[in-house]
Design goal:
single chain; alpha/beta; two-stranded antiparallel sheet; 10 strands
């Protein structure tokens, strides 16, 4: 019993220290990176104001009216910067550009994230408020999601990330409210809560559930203990870990529900260190279908424009199937960059195709038309260059586009 109490206290201290460290960092105005703009809403369900932190994609442009998938991060004041760092490295090729919403759980954390009421813990009375996950889920569904969708450029393709009690809540959402999210990252979830009650509930639920199009990544930290030793142990000391394993085994036995599921064991990581690798591996896992195919074809000089066009169209269809709505197959800068690379290699047919795709997928971008103007200028077709430069100026009355219009008119008059 004393070992269990120690584990519980250590877990609480780790969460608190992470929050304290981040809070102290935010108080210092001389920093290299600041992630997440503060916003808040009043919740009638929770009867309190709830803070959220909002991070928009790096290349977000309000005038282009583009909407993005959205990630909801529990304990957002702690973990949003990590999610943002992963996105900065992996978005575009491995994960889509996304809006990140960090939900603050620094108040009433246990109340909101635990999934059933307990009156005692480790044989001792437990008086801290708990077991209100159903109410917190109602807040997310009826208040937070509508608030975010009305105010920020997001679609209804949602990902939920949670660690510890947040991981418990994430799996509770998967089991009881699967319609709310498409992707779930449950990091070292506290599935031992209330004598593994959620595991018991999941046994019947996942058998009949339809998780087609949904993905779950689930992780477990080993604190240096090998997995086979954890599985063999029967003491309370490993109940937390064995609960995690038991839940994963239920999912692996019920593959007819079509859930895309990956479980990963991090033997060296502690409960407090496992979020970092789990967020990286988890986002790559749940968006495995998003990742770019046929990369070698794009870089091979012998690949024709027609072949590349077919690959791009396949990707467009694939993404639309998964997201449930039309979406450009690549970020604008990637398509545009390929156009300029092709032009530098004097592969004009490929260059033109890339610039045409940029205009097709990003018709409200002045830069896409300006790039096509560059293509025609390179080919000494100044009339068409003028046409596209004028279109760029109509979208964005920047002096750069205005000067280009004048230059092309002058060249046409000289010709």
């Amino acid at each position: 019993m004393m070992n269990r109490i120690k584990i519980f206290l250590i877990t609480a201290i780790v969460i608190f220290s992470l929050q304290l460290t981040h809070s102290q960092t935010n108080q210092n105005n001389q920093f290299l990176q600041k992630a997440g703009a503060l916003d808040s809403l009043y919740s009638k369900t929770l009867k309190e104001y709830r803070e959220i932190y909002v991070q928009l994609p790096a290349d977000y442009k309000p005038d282009e009216n583009i909407k993005y998938p959205v990630v909801f991060v529990l304990d957002g004041e702690v973990f949003l910067p990590t999610v943002n760092d992963v996105q900065n490295y992996y978005s575009g090729g491995f994960t889509p550009e996304m809006v990140i919403i960090g939900i603050s759980n620094n108040k009433n954390r246990m109340r909101d994230l635990t999934t059933s009421k307990v009156m005692e813990m480790y044989g001792m009375p437990f008086e801290q408020e708990n077991g209100e996950a159903a109410n917190f889920s109602k807040f997310i569904e009826t208040e937070l999601i509508p608030f975010v969708e009305n105010k920020y450029p997001v679609t209804n393709f949602r990902t939920l990330i949670g660690h510890s009690y947040g991981g418990l809540f994430t799996l509770y959402s998967l089991v009881h409210h699967p319609e709310l999210f498409s992707n779930y990252l449950a990091i070292d979830p506290s599935l031992d809560w209330d004598n593994q009650r959620l595991i018991t509930e999941a046994k019947d639920k996942v058998l009949s559930a339809d998780y087609k199009g949904k993905s779950l990544f689930m992780s477990l930290g080993g604190s240096g203990v090998p997995l086979n030793e954890i599985k063999k142990d029967t003491t309370d000391l490993t109940l937390f870990s064995r609960s995690n394993i038991a839940f994963s085994e239920i999912l692996n036995k019920n593959k007819q529900n079509q859930l895309a599921f990956e479980w990963k064991f991090y033997q060296r990581d502690l409960h407090g260190t496992i979020p970092f690798p789990s967020i990286m591996d988890g986002l790559i896992s749940v968006f495995e279908w998003y990742q770019t195919e046929n990369i070698d074809k794009y870089n091979m000089p012998t690949t024709t424009a027609d072949e590349i066009n077919k690959i791009v169209r396949y990707r467009q269809h694939k993404l639309e199937t998964h997201f449930g709505y039309a979406v450009p197959p690549f970020p604008e800068f990637l398509i545009n960059m390929q156009g300029y690379m092709s032009m530098d290699m004097d592969q004009m047919e490929r260059a033109k195709m890339y610039f045409e795709l940029t205009i097709e997928y990003y018709p409200n971008s002045a830069n896409s038309y300006d790039s096509m103007a560059d293509y025609y200028e390179r080919n000494n077709d100044f009339k068409n260059a003028l046409k596209f430069a004028t279109k760029a100026y109509e979208i964005n009355a920047d002096d750069h586009y205005k000067r280009r219009i004048e230059e092309f008119k002058e060249k046409i008059n000289k010709g």
